[in-house]
What we know:
The chain is α+β, with helices and mostly antiparallel strands. It has helices spanning 7-19, 68-73, 96-111, and strands spanning 22-38, 43-58. Helices cover 31% and strands 29% of the residues. The protein has a two-stranded antiparallel ribbon.
Amino acid sequence: MNVDETLEECLIREVKEETGIIIRPGQCISAEHDMYYSLSSQQAYNNPLLYFLCHNPQGEISTDGFDEYEREYARKAEWVALDHIEDIKFHNPIDSVSVIRKAFAVESKREE
């Protein structure tokens, strides 16, 4: 997160950089954190993990916003059907499938 941006501005920027998609931020549905040690910097980090609903996705998925490091390790984002989310290998310490299901439940209630 940049010093001069709000959480919502950071979310919009990060989603655009990582996926090429422009979104409208919704509510935060989960807040977690991850402690990890970076071998390259020889430092420990407490990484906040904030999960938001996102609305009205616009644009095409791309890797145009990747920096040099991301171009080496990351792959292009893709849309995945909800009935296939349990087949995905998530690289984070939380139960991502539960967060996605929670987001779907929150959004379903909002639409009622």
